[in-house]
Amino acid sequence: MRYPLERYRNIGIIAHIDAGKTTVSERILFYTGISHKIGEVHEGQAIMDWMEQERERGITITSAATTCFWTQVREVKKAADDSQRAKLKKEKEHRINIIDTPGHVDFTAEVERSLRVLDGGVVVFDGVAGVEPQSETVWHQADKYKVPRICFINKMDRMGASFENSFNSILEKLTPYAVVVQLPIGSEENFQGVVDLLEKKAFVFKGDHGENIEEIEIPREMVGQVEQKRARLVEKIVEKEETLMEKYLAGEEIGLDDLRRVLRKATIDNELVPVFCGSALKNKGVQFVLDGVIDYLPSPLEINHLKPIKGTSPRTGEEIIRQPSDNEPLTTLAFKIATDPFVGNLTYFRIYSGVMKKGTYILNSTRNNQERVGRIVRMHANHREDVEEMFAGDLGAIVGLKGTGTGDTLCSPEDPIILEGITFKEPVINLKIEPKTKADQEKLGLALRRLADEDPTFRVTGDLETGETIIWGMGELHLEILVDRMKREFGVEANVGRPRVSYKETVRANAEAEGKYIRQSGGRGQYGHVEIKIKPLERGKGFVFVNQIKGGIIPQEFIPAVEKGIKEAMDRGIVAGYPVTDTEVTLFDGSYHEVDSSEAAFKIAGSMAFQEAAKRAQPVILEPIMKIQVITPPDFLGDVTGDLNSKRGRIESLSDRIMMKVVDAKVPLSEMFGYVTNLRSMTQGRGTFTMEFSHYEEAPKNIEQLIVEGKK
Ligand code: GDP
């Protein structure tokens, strides 16, 4: 069945670890799996079987994008028989794609890729703890991308749960725009159901899994509170639209449709955030969150922060704008590469415009190669569905693409476009990892390959001479988690070194040098002789080799060997053994011997010449500088900036975000070890930060000395 775009929702369930994201997701998949059965007899047994089976097999909620269907409770309640239900399905059923969001928010890469493709979020809180520091991090990330949100205060059944306190912590710590749309009936062990404030109706959840929703009378002791909270909600809504405001002030009753329409618009515009409550574990309230997703979160047609999607033409460099429509040329973003135990390599994509058809060729415009769409699958909770085509606004996965990476644009070959990619920064931190046994060596190899496939910011290098494996990542925590996964998921036992900063070296001046490798006494001789010039290049230019040899002073066949020798010397560094970069090397003279010259001799000569030249060219160490953003309550701003200054940081801007101060700064990576803990203690646990690589910069002399001595 083809769903019109306005009946699509692409959402993420966003939560601090332990708030109940997994339980909420499971319940969503459960209720959506049986949504068409609500009200049927005998369903109890069927549901049980389904749940048992799923429990054994493990629901694929770890899939990067899972699809499900939902018709709102109030609509289902209107349908009296099967034929009406069938009609309802046709007219009101929505397709909800749930995009997996990382529980850890410390790697911008993971967060960015999920926030890039989702249109709205359900933020889950623990009803006892309310807003926790980690939930603040996620929240501010979502603020940055202007993702419309609704909130779900979960665990209302837990001892110590308080809707009021949790809601107030959202108001105080996250957003003044939060509005209560539901009230809990009872609390802790007496938590029974919810009152919908707009409808002024109370509901309880019956059946083994809360699948039967029954309307009850609003408990007498709640009537006053319901009136009062509803009035406040209505006020907040009518403020958003002048004509409604006028009606309201004139004392007119505002209809439900108007209230919902304006609350929807305000939520999508990030001006209001509806707050729901329930207990996923006790099967209470999750269905209404799904109703809320439909009522208040945007369809792909309404996403303000993306609409219409922009890109550039790879042919002309001009800006191209695509509308979210099937009639536009195909424009998709590959947002995650994963390995599926059954079908192998899966490339998850989101279609912004056009239609993706099985069996066609598409262009990977980021890498300029063609790919064939052999198989398109849609991931459901309990199975994988092969589909012939997919449409604008949708999410799915292609099986078996070879040359596509995370963040690449896949598009129509006739109308190429490049979307802004998901940019991944250079991994600037590394550590040594040493398997304990031969068996671990093999497991490690497999684990590293798998993890690197999934995570574009994770790299592995091996040192053939020492047999050492070095892994590279974006930050301390990133490597910590990868090492943990290696141990837990792949059972690798290994010794792990301390994380180290990936320094580089470069030269600051021009210099010349000669390299001679001549051995001509006894046996076969060796003869390699080169003269080179080196010159500093701008940051980020890497290594450039220029060959100015004319007239065969050095035969052409030996030139690549010279270059290779130079490269090897560069990798070993001059100052402290870090790779040399941003340097141009020109080979301009030399000589050879008819018999004794060989590639090996020229390689050594090249290497010797480079080492000598580099020493004369004022070599220096480059250190990675990170771009960091700290979000802190205003009270701690002074401590945070003072601390950054003492870390050789440069504060670039101070700004306000809802209830928080935002500090943008550049700080050398070597100063940032342990900053998570550091910041926590400085801000009573409320400060959060993100960090990504910015650029390499010359290290000051005193720091260089420490690096050379191995103290930094
Ligand atoms: P995640 O880490 O956010 O995915 O959280 P989980 O869904 O794994 O839940 C963390 C813990 O909280 C588990 O022990 C759940 O059983 C429990 N939990 C989740 N939802 C509820 C709830 O509504 N009430 C109670 N009492 N516990 C819950």
Automatic annotation (TrEMBL):
The name this protein goes by in its record: Elongation factor G
Organism name: Candidatus Wolfebacteria bacterium GW2011_GWC1_43_10
Keywords, in A-Z order: Cytoplasm, Elongation factor, GTP-binding, Nucleotide-binding, Protein biosynthesis
Cell location: Cytoplasm
Gene name linked to the record: fusA
Function: Catalyzes the GTP-dependent ribosomal translocation step during translation elongation. During this step, the ribosome changes from the pre-translocational (PRE) to the post-translocational (POST) state as the newly formed A-site-bound peptidyl-tRNA and P-site-bound deacylated tRNA move to the P and E sites, respectively. Catalyzes the coordinated movement of the two tRNA molecules, the mRNA and conformational changes in the ribosome.
Residue ranges of every copy of the Tr-type G domain listed in the record: 6-301
Gene Ontology MF terms in the entry: GTP binding; GTPase activity; translation elongation factor activity
SMART domains: EFG_C, EFG_IV
Binding site for GTP: 15-22, 100-104, 154-157
